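2024-03-11 09:14:02 DEBUG pipeline.ingest accepted 1 chain
2024-03-11 09:14:02 DEBUG pipeline.ingest length=137
2024-03-11 09:14:03 DEBUG pipeline.predict start
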Amino acid sequence: MLDIITRLSEGKAGIKEIDELEKLCNDVKNGSLCGLGKTAPNPVLTGLRYFREEFEAHANGYCPAKKCRELVKYEINDNCTGCTKCFQECPVNAIAYKPFEKHVIDQTLCTKCDNCRVVCRDNAVELVNIRDAGKDQ
């Protein structure tokens, strides 16, 4: 179950694996002899019952909540004033020092730590689903 959910959060699982996950949860629940085994799959089954569209979105490479690191990226929008706060807080130097210019995040270096978004006073750093990136341009 964990492997399938992990692959879903990385955008590496397909729609068919959601059905496999549900079947596996029911098999564990019905085949277990102890209370732990009978109840362990309940959070996943409840998630599938009430939020199946979220699971399906992940299977299609899209994270509606923008929380899955593998499916999102950070971008700097036109609100950037070049204050360099993001540069100062980036632990991996994914943002070059360019005072008073719009900053750019090097996606190959970015660890998606969220520091840049948190410190940006201009709301210039935003999370974007990788699938949606570049559609506005």
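2024-03-11 09:14:41 DEBUG pipeline.report The chain has a mean pLDDT of 93.
2024-03-11 09:14:41 DEBUG pipeline.predict end
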